[in-house]
Amino acid sequence: KETEVKKEEKKVTKEKISKSYASVISKNEGSVTLQDSKNIIKEANLNSEVQNGDMLEFVHKKDDKTDEFAGKHKVIAYDDKLPKAWDDEGIFKKYYNKAYEKIQKMSLDEKIAQILLVRYPDSNQAETLKSNKFGGYIFYAKDFKDKNYSDVQEMMNNLQSVSDIPILTAVDEEGGKVIRVSSNPKLSPTPFKSPRELYLEGGFDKIKEDTINKCNLLHDLGINLNLAPVVDVTTNPDDYMYARALGEDSEKTSEYAETVIKASKGLGVTYVLKHFPGYGNNSDTHTGSSIDNRSYEDILNNDLPPFQSGIKAGAEAVLVSHNIVNSVDGDNPASLSAKVHNLLRENLGFTGIIITDDLGMGAIDDTKEATVKAVLAGNDLIITTDWESSMAGIKEATDNGRISSHLIDKLALRIISWKYYMGILR
User: Fold this and answer.
1) What is the pLDDT of residues 181-214, one digit of tens each?
2) What is the sign, positive or negative, of the torsion defined by CA atoms of 90, 91, 97, 103?
């Protein structure tokens, strides 16, 4: 009986203690920046010296209300196994070990390149890709101008043929105002309609049909990533985003997000929810900064549900806007804000890929510095036109210790795992 009591005491003690893991991704004066297995970014004041790149194990009581990444911790070594802080429950977890084997054979420059989605250059496109090994290219309407079906297929095949790791081939084929592919009558007999037009014509059935048609066209052309749907909630025709959105309330926009994501599954094209955490009635960030002064409750109750709905339906990626959302972080554009990214990770439980809006837009002043901030904010994939500045910024920050090389490892691992998940890497 005495032995049984002791066993029971041990069991109770064991149940109260748990462990958390996080890696040091950046050192600051008086504190460090940590990223945990849920990819949540936190500042921490630790009671002993740690080095950039250290993997930390925290022991804490489960009922402890204090920050789990403060106080008692120890440094644990990396080995040939997948580091514990990466061993999350993310949607790409199944492919982490395969991707980990790949990144161990890659140079730092190659890993950095994987996290860049680069604007398709005007010349030497295949040579530039072969030399730099980007994660992917993003294409605009002028890149398809005057090309027929076989021209585009040949273009995409040539790019994939020079890539050791298959690339993401991305467009914004939203329909209506933003059409990169169907603006060319040689590729599509008629341009794709806006979500608003489709909804008024035939409700969500029409939207489902349109999504399938888009996927079939894009996939046939060799395009595997569509930066759509726009799930911003806007009901005022005067709002900047109205012409690109459904134009209905939060509930209907949530159904729209679910419909598009579910309809796109299994058709060879991955869809991306945008623009987190929601544009609302804000202005265009292509030309300058936009300040969102709405309350936190308004954003939480009105703007986040469509993203939640899309994520629940299986969305693999979310694109973050350049809006400055005062109620969450008044100091940084959403795309460069760890607080905004944590909202997506913690509140919505999103484990997929977070993508910046294009860092070449007017709301961003300095691409080089913005790229570093974007990485430290929690983005997985950076859209950039000035890829030389983006590459240089990350490389310098890694060399001088501002960014941990282990963070670059993790980001490359997540992008490559995603490519396995998408089926473009086998």
Assistant:
1) 999 999 999 999 999 999 999 999 999 999 999 9
2) negative
Angle, CA 108 vertex, CA 107 and CA 111 arms, to 5°:
90
Alpha-carbon distance 82 to 167, whole Å? 24
72-105: pLDDT as tens digits: 677 776 665 666 656 677 899 999 999 999 999 9
Return the axis-axis angle of helices 96-103 and 405-422, rounded to nearest 10°. Answer: 130
Hey, what are 58's tokens?
């925290």
Mean pLDDT of 379-396: 97
C-alpha 360/C-alpha 342 separation (Å) is 24
| DSSP 8-state assignment for residue 175 | B
Helix, strand, coil fractions of the chain, as percent rounded to 5: 40, 15, 40
**pTM higher than 0.85 for the full model?**
yes
- Mark out the alpha helices in 64-124 (DSSP H runs): 96-103, 108-114
- Amino acid present at 295: S
Q: Which domains does the chain have, with CATH numbers?
A: 15-86 (2.40.50.140), 93-422 (3.20.20.300)
CA distances in angstroms from 407 to 77, 157, 162, 374, 378, listed in the order given: 15, 31, 27, 12, 10
Beta carbons within 8 Å of 363's beta carbon, 6+ residues apart:
285, 286, 288, 289, 290, 322, 323, 333
> Is the CB of residue 173 less than 8 Å from the CB of residue 221?
no
Torsion of CA 19, 24, 319, 316, to 10 degrees: -40
Distances (CA, A) of 178 to 11, 172, 282, 341, 383: 60, 7, 18, 26, 17
End-to-end CA distance of the chain: 57
